[in-house]
Amino acid sequence: MTCCVVGALTYYAFVTKNDFTVLGSFLLVLCTSLLLTMVLCFVFHSRFLRILYCGLAIMLLGFYLIVDTQMLRGNSTVAFSEDDYIIAALLIYSDIINLFIQILALLAESKD
C-alpha cells in the first residue's frame, strides 16, 4: 500500500505544473493541527482522534513527499543544489518511512 501511495505521489510531483514548494505556510498550519490532535489524543484517548491523527499525518507526509520530490527535481521555486543530494535523499527516505508507519497505524486503528 505504501509503495502505491509513494509511486502515485512521486509521479504526480513529476507531471504536475503546480509548484508545491511554496506551500510552506500551509504545511506549517497542518503541522500545528497535527500537534494539537496529538495532544488531544493523549488527553482523551479517543479512537476517532487517533484515526484523525493518522489521516492528518498521512496527508502531511504526502505533501512533504511531493515538495521534497519537486525540490530534488529542481524545476521549482525552491530547489536542492547538486551538493545537497545526501540531505535530499534523507528527507525523501524519512518521508517514506514515516508514511509507512502512519499507514500501519491507521490500518491498526481501523482493524480494532
Automatic annotation (TrEMBL):
Main location: membrane
Keywords linked to the UniProt accession: Membrane, Transmembrane, Transmembrane helix
One GO location term (cellular component): membrane
Subcellular compartments: Membrane
Transmembrane segments: 20-44, 51-67, 87-108
Mitochondrion as UniProt keyword: no
Topology class, membrane: Multi-pass membrane protein
InterPro entries: Bax_inhibitor_1-related (IPR006214)
Family indicated by similarity: Belongs to the BI1 family.
Name of the protein this chain belongs to: Uncharacterized protein
